[in-house]
Write the structure tokens for this entry.
Amino acid sequence: MNEFELIARYFARPVRERQGVGDDCALIDVGDRTLAVTTDLLTERTHFFPGVDPASLGHKALAVNLSDLAAAGARPRCFLLSLSLPRPDPDWLQAFSNGMFELAAREGCELIGGDTTRVADVADHPGPLTICITAIGEVERGCLRGRGGARAGDDLWVSGQLGDAALAVAHAKGRVRLDEAAARACRRRLDWPQPRVSLGLALRRLATAAIDVSDGLLGDLGHMLERSGVGASVRAGDVPRSDTVRGVEPELQRRCVLAGGDDYELLFTASPAQREAVAGVGRDCCTAITMIGTMTSEPGLRLVGDPGFDATLQGFDHFAGASGA
Ligand code: ADP
Ligand code: MG
């Protein structure tokens, strides 16, 4: 049972609200407004290395949530913070708080609540630090874009560059040796992701579907295809990547770019008639955006222009390979 089968089997239920489980944000109608709500959990050793810069962790814990709001085309409004801490270390807390509030101020959202607990020691060692943020944004009623709106014939676009964060993880685990400057640049992408909030908002009337790339391009595109009931043809060589990523051996490069994760870029579709307008939005938001493929009526995902592609490459799944029916 993988992560998504688990969610589908035990937790996905029909809801009264406008949108429940299955998209980047849940959508709740309140009067004439629609709220977008999302939550993301970061656990030590699973999502971040022990001892990571606390300022970056504060930033990232909020950034990953704002990235989901961006995918939904929502304007961030407020958020809740829940912490399970092994030790109350004032220096750590100050830096964490600074990193988080700096991003909150930049994106115009406020912390309105949360919960704080202590995690017990495990075998005389501090228990794992866990951070959970729930973010709330507002969307225009007329622009309720989700993962499910892609149509055959739409262009497929992605913002920024993919693969740096995954390469930073590979470097930290000793699977590749990068020179110091390259390692630092990749590590920055891993630790300080920049949520594409303004791009998400600017695409409100242009994108037919969107998802943020958090678990790897192929996995997240797969979610979009499933929800939209279409297929896609992706030009693997066109998927944007940094010179550092381009410099590593092909198999690792492919793995980082197509299945890496932690990119927090926006993957979206739009009608070919909107090509100029989409390119203009990228320029206005000072964000590189690249067309990487086409949506097809034939279901499934086809990668073209990459003969070495391994069809078993998938996005990140927390329970891949775990036992259970
Ligand atoms: P994202 O990567 O954008 O955070 P996922 O693709 O991981 O979202 O999750 C898929 C969907 O499943 C989302 O709509 C999410 O809200 C929902 N979900 C995940 N875990 C649970 C859970 N334990 N209970 C209910 N819904 C869940
Ligand atoms: Mg998401």
